[in-house]
Structure formats: structure tokens, C-alpha cells
Amino acid sequence: MEVIYLTHLSELKNLESHVMAIGFFDGVHLGHQELFKHANEQARKRGIKSSALTFSPHPDEVIKGDSSRKYLTPLQEKIKKISQCGIDKLYVMKFDKQFASLPPMDFINKYIIGMNVKHVVVGFDFTFGFKAQGNTKVLEAESLKGDFGLTIVPKKTYVDTKISSTETRKLLNEGNVETIPYYLGMNYQVKALINGSNRTNSTFSVTITDRYLLPKPGIYEVNIIINNKVYNGEFNLTDCKNELNIFDVNHSDLKEELTIEFLNRLRVKSVVLV
Asked: How far apart are CA 248 and CA 264, in angstroms?
């Protein structure tokens, strides 16, 4: 997948026609994957390439000043996951105050019509432009003029709850990691590096290598993936430190970045006094 980084000053001329899914796509959850599926299908029908337009950083960092915001998928992880969905080209727009102030019609004229997009794919609750004044109704009205087609993907749910980045973040904040696969299509993962170790009991202090949102403090059953090898372990998350207990680990692997895959939150069984 080709990745192209843009700013609001970027020149967008002589682009080949393509089908574009638009969204922030944090988590690349099952709802997002449905958008990419439709984009790929529409592209195949037309014999052109599929693309996606995403933004970095999150609008809340710019509009609300939330500079400490954590992500389900930091940018490089999001790029990797979108690539795995079969998209041909990804545009990463720098979200800044100038871009945030763009009126909805200017967004359409520059980033849809101006980018030679023949068909747009968005979610049912997609908003865009200054103060989110643009929405799917605006897109529908403009698409009827014939410059581009439009697919609006309906809500995808799990047990009557909308699959969304917000709901996924809520599950993590509750420590409910075992439900995450029904939203992401896989277990929740973060990247980490070893700080130091106790070679006797294989307990390691780790540093999370990017701005991942971590689950609620607690002890979690995890898989640890190092050099494509999978180890079982436990991850003790506290407000002060992150300790990883890796069972039967090959210590020569510990110089590499590792992936922590959350399986279940371990709960202390109550003791019944007789």
C-alpha cells in the first residue's frame, strides 16, 4: 500500500481516479473494515484503485488541546492494519487548525472532486468540515450532482451495541479485554520494549513504545509475541509501573520489540471460610 502524507497546502493535481473511504479509523475495527470492503468492491467494479483518507493527529488534540490523548492504533499501527485490509493507497492528512476550519463544501471540492474520487465510502455517522457541519446528508446532496458516487455503510453492532472506537475505548477502560475481539476482529495488542529483568522469575519491566491506550489497571492473561514466537504470560498494569511475566521465555529474544496481546483480565477468587 502506498502512503501519502498531506497538509492543507498540498498540491493535488493529475491524480488517477480512485474510490476512497474516509474516516479517522482508530482501532480499524469491524465497522471500519466494512468500509474498506465496500471501497475495494466499488474499485473493482470500476477497474480503478481503492484508497482511504485518514487524519493525524486526532481532531481532539487540535480542537480541545488534548495533547496526551492515547490511541487504539497509533498512526504507524493504523497504517499497517489498513494495508492488511487490501487498500491500494492511503492519504494521511495533517489535522491542524487550518484544516479544522475548512467549510464542508471546500472539503468536498478539494478532497473529493479535486482528488478525482469517483466514489466515496463513509460510515452512517460520518461528519466533516468546520465544527462537523458536514454529514452524510450533505454528501448525498452533492453526489446527486453526478461528480461522485456514494456508499453510506450502516451501523455495525455487537449485542445491540454500535461497534465503534468510542465503545472499544470504553471496554478497555473497564478492563473488559475479552470482549474486544467482537469489536476489532482480533485481540487488543500493544507494542513494548523490555526495560530490565529479574532472570530468576522472568518478570520484566516494560515500556509501551507508542501512545497506546492501555486497559484498566489489573493483572491480565496475555500472549507475548517476539520474533513470531508466541509465549504465554501475565501483565501486571498499575498506575506506577508495567510488569510483564513471560513464561518459558528465550532470553536472547528480549532485545527485540515485542507485542502484548490481551486475552483476559484475571480476577482473584474469593476465599470461603468454613
From this structure: 20
Average pLDDT, the chain: 92
User: For the whole model, what pTM was predicted?
Assistant: 0.92
Convert the pLDDT of each residue in 177-235 to its tens digit: 999 999 999 999 999 998 865 555 678 899 999 999 999 999 999 999 998 899 999 99
| pLDDT at residue 201, as a whole number | 67
